[in-house]
Amino acid sequence: MGLTQNYKLNVIQWYPGHIAKAEKKLKEQLKVVDVVLEVRDARIPMSTHHPQLFDWIGNKSRVLVLNRLDMISPQVRHVWTDWFKQNNEVPYYTNAKQGQCIEALAKAAQDAGIELNQRRKSRGMLPRPVRAVVIGFPNVGKSALINRLLGKRVVESAARPGVTRSLRWVRISDQLELLDSPGIIPLRLENQDAAVKLAICDDIGNASYDNQLIASAFVDTIIYLEAVASNLLPKNLLKNRYNFGSSDYTGEAYLHALAEYRYNGDIERTARQLLTDFRKGLLGKIPLEIPSQFANEHQEIN
Ligand SMILES: Nc1nc2c(ncn2[C@@H]2O[C@H](COP(=O)(O)OP(=O)(O)OP(=O)(O)O)[C@@H](O)[C@H]2O)c(=O)[nH]1
Fold first, then answer.
1. Shortest-distance atom of ligand 1 to CA 136
2. C-beta 130 within 6 A of ligand 1
Protein backbone atom coordinates (compact mmCIF):
# COMPACT_ATOMS: atom_id res chain seq x y z
CA MET A 1 0.00 0.00 0.00
CA GLY A 2 1.07 3.55 -0.61
CA LEU A 3 1.14 6.03 2.22
CA THR A 4 -2.10 7.95 2.06
CA GLN A 5 -4.03 10.57 3.90
CA ASN A 6 -7.78 10.74 4.29
CA TYR A 7 -9.29 13.86 2.80
CA LYS A 8 -12.55 15.17 4.14
CA LEU A 9 -13.76 16.32 0.76
CA ASN A 10 -17.01 16.05 -1.07
CA VAL A 11 -17.37 13.70 -3.94
CA ILE A 12 -15.26 14.18 -7.07
CA GLN A 13 -16.67 12.34 -10.07
CA TRP A 14 -15.51 12.55 -13.68
CA TYR A 15 -16.55 10.20 -16.43
CA PRO A 16 -16.88 11.88 -19.83
CA GLY A 17 -18.96 10.04 -22.46
CA HIS A 18 -16.02 9.29 -24.73
CA ILE A 19 -14.35 7.29 -21.96
CA ALA A 20 -17.35 4.96 -21.63
CA LYS A 21 -17.24 4.30 -25.39
CA ALA A 22 -13.49 3.86 -25.36
CA GLU A 23 -13.68 1.38 -22.49
CA LYS A 24 -16.14 -0.73 -24.46
CA LYS A 25 -13.97 -0.68 -27.59
CA LEU A 26 -10.85 -1.31 -25.57
CA LYS A 27 -12.34 -4.47 -24.08
CA GLU A 28 -13.12 -5.70 -27.62
CA GLN A 29 -9.61 -4.89 -28.87
CA LEU A 30 -8.03 -6.63 -25.89
CA LYS A 31 -9.05 -9.94 -27.47
CA VAL A 32 -6.48 -9.42 -30.26
CA VAL A 33 -3.77 -7.96 -28.07
CA ASP A 34 -0.76 -9.90 -26.77
CA VAL A 35 0.78 -7.46 -24.31
CA VAL A 36 -0.61 -4.66 -22.16
CA LEU A 37 1.54 -1.64 -21.34
CA GLU A 38 -0.02 -0.21 -18.21
CA VAL A 39 1.08 3.41 -17.87
CA ARG A 40 0.85 5.13 -14.48
CA ASP A 41 1.89 8.52 -13.18
CA ALA A 42 5.11 8.07 -11.17
CA ARG A 43 3.98 10.75 -8.70
CA ILE A 44 0.91 8.65 -7.82
CA PRO A 45 1.55 5.03 -8.88
CA MET A 46 -1.25 3.65 -6.69
CA SER A 47 -3.96 6.14 -7.60
CA THR A 48 -3.37 5.71 -11.34
CA HIS A 49 -3.97 1.97 -11.30
CA HIS A 50 -7.39 1.09 -12.68
CA PRO A 51 -9.03 -1.33 -10.22
CA GLN A 52 -10.53 -3.44 -13.03
CA LEU A 53 -7.42 -3.71 -15.15
CA PHE A 54 -6.40 -7.17 -13.97
CA ASP A 55 -9.89 -8.53 -14.63
CA TRP A 56 -9.76 -7.21 -18.20
CA ILE A 57 -6.31 -8.46 -19.11
CA GLY A 58 -6.60 -11.92 -17.55
CA ASN A 59 -3.36 -13.81 -18.12
CA LYS A 60 -1.96 -11.62 -20.92
CA SER A 61 1.55 -10.26 -20.39
CA ARG A 62 1.67 -6.85 -18.75
CA VAL A 63 4.49 -4.33 -18.66
CA LEU A 64 4.22 -1.76 -15.88
CA VAL A 65 5.31 1.75 -16.87
CA LEU A 66 5.75 4.61 -14.41
CA ASN A 67 5.90 7.71 -16.58
CA ARG A 68 6.94 11.25 -15.57
CA LEU A 69 10.25 9.97 -14.25
CA ASP A 70 11.49 13.57 -14.35
CA MET A 71 8.94 14.53 -11.69
CA ILE A 72 10.20 12.22 -8.93
CA SER A 73 13.62 12.11 -7.30
CA PRO A 74 16.03 9.17 -7.78
CA GLN A 75 15.43 8.34 -4.10
CA VAL A 76 11.67 8.04 -4.59
CA ARG A 77 12.23 5.95 -7.70
CA HIS A 78 14.39 3.69 -5.60
CA VAL A 79 11.77 3.20 -2.86
CA TRP A 80 9.06 2.43 -5.39
CA THR A 81 11.31 -0.01 -7.24
CA ASP A 82 11.96 -1.85 -3.96
CA TRP A 83 8.28 -1.86 -3.13
CA PHE A 84 7.26 -3.23 -6.52
CA LYS A 85 10.05 -5.82 -6.31
CA GLN A 86 8.60 -7.04 -3.02
CA ASN A 87 5.34 -7.45 -4.92
CA ASN A 88 7.09 -9.35 -7.74
CA GLU A 89 6.80 -6.51 -10.24
CA VAL A 90 9.40 -4.66 -12.28
CA PRO A 91 8.41 -1.10 -13.12
CA TYR A 92 9.83 0.58 -16.23
CA TYR A 93 10.34 4.29 -15.59
CA THR A 94 10.03 6.64 -18.53
CA ASN A 95 10.11 10.31 -19.30
CA ALA A 96 7.95 10.46 -22.40
CA LYS A 97 8.37 14.21 -22.70
CA GLN A 98 12.15 14.11 -23.10
CA GLY A 99 12.33 10.56 -24.42
CA GLN A 100 14.26 8.91 -21.58
CA CYS A 101 14.38 5.14 -20.99
CA ILE A 102 12.17 4.42 -23.99
CA GLU A 103 14.30 1.72 -25.64
CA ALA A 104 14.20 -0.49 -22.54
CA LEU A 105 10.43 -0.29 -22.61
CA ALA A 106 10.20 -1.15 -26.31
CA LYS A 107 12.42 -4.16 -25.67
CA ALA A 108 10.31 -5.27 -22.70
CA ALA A 109 7.16 -5.07 -24.82
CA GLN A 110 8.78 -7.03 -27.62
CA ASP A 111 10.24 -9.62 -25.26
CA ALA A 112 6.85 -10.15 -23.69
CA GLY A 113 5.69 -11.28 -27.10
CA ILE A 114 8.58 -13.64 -27.88
CA GLU A 115 6.63 -16.56 -26.48
CA LEU A 116 3.81 -15.70 -28.83
CA ASN A 117 5.96 -16.25 -31.91
CA GLN A 118 7.51 -19.37 -30.45
CA ARG A 119 4.01 -20.79 -30.11
CA ARG A 120 3.11 -19.70 -33.65
CA LYS A 121 6.29 -21.31 -35.00
CA SER A 122 5.56 -24.58 -33.22
CA ARG A 123 2.17 -24.61 -34.98
CA GLY A 124 3.79 -23.95 -38.35
CA MET A 125 2.56 -20.36 -38.48
CA LEU A 126 4.59 -17.37 -39.65
CA PRO A 127 5.78 -14.93 -36.98
CA ARG A 128 3.88 -11.66 -36.69
CA PRO A 129 4.53 -8.38 -34.86
CA VAL A 130 3.65 -8.37 -31.17
CA ARG A 131 0.44 -6.42 -30.58
CA ALA A 132 0.58 -4.23 -27.51
CA VAL A 133 -1.96 -1.83 -26.11
CA VAL A 134 -1.12 1.23 -24.06
CA ILE A 135 -3.59 1.59 -21.22
CA GLY A 136 -3.73 4.21 -18.49
CA PHE A 137 -5.59 7.04 -16.85
CA PRO A 138 -6.08 10.27 -18.80
CA ASN A 139 -3.07 12.57 -19.16
CA VAL A 140 -0.49 10.11 -17.76
CA GLY A 141 1.47 10.39 -21.02
CA LYS A 142 0.28 7.48 -23.16
CA SER A 143 0.33 9.38 -26.46
CA ALA A 144 3.65 11.05 -25.68
CA LEU A 145 5.07 7.61 -24.93
CA ILE A 146 3.86 6.17 -28.23
CA ASN A 147 5.31 9.14 -30.09
CA ARG A 148 8.62 8.50 -28.38
CA LEU A 149 8.47 4.81 -29.20
CA LEU A 150 7.89 5.77 -32.79
CA GLY A 151 10.55 8.44 -32.74
CA LYS A 152 8.16 10.95 -34.19
CA ARG A 153 4.91 12.68 -33.40
CA VAL A 154 1.97 10.80 -34.85
CA VAL A 155 -0.65 10.82 -32.13
CA GLU A 156 -1.88 13.99 -30.51
CA SER A 157 -0.41 14.68 -27.08
CA ALA A 158 -1.64 17.61 -25.03
CA ALA A 159 -1.42 19.05 -21.53
CA ARG A 160 -4.99 18.30 -20.61
CA PRO A 161 -6.80 15.10 -19.74
CA GLY A 162 -9.11 13.51 -22.28
CA VAL A 163 -7.35 14.39 -25.55
CA THR A 164 -7.16 10.96 -27.18
CA ARG A 165 -10.71 10.12 -28.16
CA SER A 166 -10.46 7.04 -30.33
CA LEU A 167 -8.34 3.92 -30.55
CA ARG A 168 -5.72 3.57 -33.27
CA TRP A 169 -3.04 1.08 -34.20
CA VAL A 170 0.50 2.31 -34.81
CA ARG A 171 3.33 0.17 -36.23
CA ILE A 172 6.47 0.76 -34.17
CA SER A 173 8.68 -1.75 -35.98
CA ASP A 174 8.47 -5.09 -37.78
CA GLN A 175 8.28 -6.65 -34.34
CA LEU A 176 5.87 -4.36 -32.54
CA GLU A 177 2.46 -2.81 -33.15
CA LEU A 178 0.85 -0.53 -30.57
CA LEU A 179 -2.71 0.47 -29.92
CA ASP A 180 -3.12 3.94 -28.43
CA SER A 181 -6.29 4.32 -26.40
CA PRO A 182 -8.01 7.18 -24.63
CA GLY A 183 -7.47 7.39 -20.91
CA ILE A 184 -9.71 5.12 -18.93
CA ILE A 185 -10.99 5.81 -15.49
CA PRO A 186 -13.40 3.94 -13.21
CA LEU A 187 -17.06 4.76 -13.69
CA ARG A 188 -17.22 5.82 -10.07
CA LEU A 189 -14.22 7.16 -8.21
CA GLU A 190 -14.90 5.17 -5.05
CA ASN A 191 -11.53 6.06 -3.59
CA GLN A 192 -11.76 9.78 -2.99
CA ASP A 193 -8.19 10.03 -1.68
CA ALA A 194 -7.11 8.83 -5.09
CA ALA A 195 -9.56 11.19 -6.84
CA VAL A 196 -8.03 14.16 -5.01
CA LYS A 197 -4.56 13.12 -6.11
CA LEU A 198 -5.73 12.68 -9.69
CA ALA A 199 -7.09 16.23 -9.53
CA ILE A 200 -3.89 17.63 -8.02
CA CYS A 201 -1.86 15.95 -10.78
CA ASP A 202 -4.25 17.18 -13.53
CA ASP A 203 -5.14 13.60 -14.46
CA ILE A 204 -8.92 14.31 -14.50
CA GLY A 205 -10.90 17.13 -16.08
CA ASN A 206 -10.86 20.36 -14.08
CA ALA A 207 -14.63 20.88 -14.29
CA SER A 208 -15.01 18.02 -11.79
CA TYR A 209 -13.38 19.76 -8.83
CA ASP A 210 -12.96 22.98 -6.93
CA ASN A 211 -9.47 24.45 -7.28
CA GLN A 212 -9.46 25.85 -3.78
CA LEU A 213 -10.36 22.54 -2.16
CA ILE A 214 -7.80 20.71 -4.26
CA ALA A 215 -5.06 23.27 -3.60
CA SER A 216 -5.80 23.06 0.14
CA ALA A 217 -5.63 19.27 -0.04
CA PHE A 218 -2.33 19.59 -1.92
CA VAL A 219 -0.83 21.73 0.85
CA ASP A 220 -2.20 19.33 3.48
CA THR A 221 -0.48 16.49 1.61
CA ILE A 222 2.83 18.34 1.63
CA ILE A 223 2.51 19.14 5.34
CA TYR A 224 1.68 15.50 6.01
CA LEU A 225 4.52 14.09 3.92
CA GLU A 226 6.96 16.55 5.47
CA ALA A 227 5.94 15.15 8.85
CA VAL A 228 6.26 11.46 7.96
CA ALA A 229 8.75 11.29 5.07
CA SER A 230 10.70 14.54 5.00
CA ASN A 231 13.72 12.65 3.63
CA LEU A 232 11.83 12.07 0.36
CA LEU A 233 10.77 15.68 -0.22
CA PRO A 234 12.64 18.84 -1.19
CA LYS A 235 13.34 20.90 1.94
CA ASN A 236 11.12 23.95 2.66
CA LEU A 237 9.52 23.66 -0.74
CA LEU A 238 6.69 26.15 -0.14
CA LYS A 239 8.94 28.67 1.60
CA ASN A 240 11.49 28.46 -1.19
CA ARG A 241 8.92 29.20 -3.87
CA TYR A 242 6.67 31.75 -2.15
CA ASN A 243 8.91 33.06 0.62
CA PHE A 244 6.11 31.94 2.93
CA GLY A 245 6.32 28.71 4.92
CA SER A 246 3.49 26.44 6.01
CA SER A 247 4.40 25.81 9.65
CA ASP A 248 1.41 25.98 12.00
CA TYR A 249 -1.09 26.11 9.15
CA THR A 250 -3.61 23.67 7.79
CA GLY A 251 -3.78 23.49 3.98
CA GLU A 252 -6.82 25.74 3.84
CA ALA A 253 -5.39 28.27 6.29
CA TYR A 254 -2.14 28.34 4.33
CA LEU A 255 -4.01 29.00 1.08
CA HIS A 256 -5.80 31.97 2.65
CA ALA A 257 -2.67 33.31 4.32
CA LEU A 258 -0.62 32.98 1.13
CA ALA A 259 -3.36 34.77 -0.81
CA GLU A 260 -3.11 37.70 1.64
CA TYR A 261 0.67 37.68 1.61
CA ARG A 262 1.25 37.46 -2.14
CA TYR A 263 -1.87 37.66 -4.26
CA ASN A 264 -3.97 40.58 -2.94
CA GLY A 265 -6.26 38.22 -1.07
CA ASP A 266 -7.30 36.47 -4.33
CA ILE A 267 -7.78 32.90 -3.06
CA GLU A 268 -8.80 31.39 -6.41
CA ARG A 269 -5.73 32.82 -8.11
CA THR A 270 -3.54 31.52 -5.30
CA ALA A 271 -5.09 28.04 -5.58
CA ARG A 272 -4.49 27.94 -9.34
CA GLN A 273 -0.94 29.19 -8.89
CA LEU A 274 -0.12 26.48 -6.34
CA LEU A 275 -1.53 23.75 -8.57
CA THR A 276 0.14 25.08 -11.72
CA ASP A 277 3.49 25.41 -9.99
CA PHE A 278 3.27 21.82 -8.74
CA ARG A 279 2.20 20.47 -12.14
CA LYS A 280 5.03 22.30 -13.90
CA GLY A 281 7.52 20.92 -11.38
CA LEU A 282 8.37 24.42 -10.13
CA LEU A 283 8.09 23.37 -6.48
CA GLY A 284 10.59 20.57 -6.96
CA LYS A 285 10.15 16.85 -7.37
CA ILE A 286 7.23 15.98 -5.14
CA PRO A 287 5.80 12.47 -4.82
CA LEU A 288 2.21 12.53 -3.60
CA GLU A 289 2.39 8.83 -2.75
CA ILE A 290 5.14 6.78 -1.21
CA PRO A 291 5.16 3.22 0.10
CA SER A 292 4.39 3.34 3.82
CA GLN A 293 7.40 1.34 4.96
CA PHE A 294 9.76 4.05 3.68
CA ALA A 295 8.27 6.82 5.77
CA ASN A 296 10.07 8.05 8.89
CA GLU A 297 7.23 6.78 10.97
CA HIS A 298 5.77 3.41 10.14
CA GLN A 299 2.21 4.48 10.23
CA GLU A 300 -0.57 4.52 7.74
CA ILE A 301 -3.22 7.13 8.23
CA ASN A 302 -6.51 5.85 6.91
N1 LIG B 1 7.08 16.28 -17.34
C2 LIG B 1 6.59 15.31 -18.11
N3 LIG B 1 5.50 15.54 -18.88
C4 LIG B 1 5.02 14.53 -19.63
C5 LIG B 1 5.62 13.24 -19.63
N6 LIG B 1 4.91 12.46 -20.49
C7 LIG B 1 3.92 13.22 -20.99
N8 LIG B 1 4.00 14.48 -20.49
C9 LIG B 1 3.10 15.60 -20.78
O10 LIG B 1 1.83 15.29 -20.24
C11 LIG B 1 0.79 15.79 -21.06
C12 LIG B 1 -0.17 14.64 -21.39
O13 LIG B 1 0.47 13.70 -22.24
P14 LIG B 1 -0.36 12.78 -23.27
O15 LIG B 1 0.63 11.93 -23.96
O16 LIG B 1 -1.28 13.62 -24.09
O17 LIG B 1 -1.23 11.95 -22.24
P18 LIG B 1 -2.32 10.83 -22.55
O19 LIG B 1 -2.16 9.82 -21.46
O20 LIG B 1 -2.22 10.33 -23.94
O21 LIG B 1 -3.67 11.66 -22.32
P22 LIG B 1 -5.19 11.33 -22.79
O23 LIG B 1 -5.19 11.50 -24.26
O24 LIG B 1 -5.94 12.39 -22.05
O25 LIG B 1 -5.57 9.98 -22.31
C26 LIG B 1 1.48 16.42 -22.28
O27 LIG B 1 1.59 17.81 -22.04
C28 LIG B 1 2.85 15.76 -22.28
O29 LIG B 1 3.85 16.59 -22.86
C30 LIG B 1 6.77 13.02 -18.80
O31 LIG B 1 7.35 11.93 -18.73
N32 LIG B 1 7.19 14.08 -18.06
1. 19
2. no
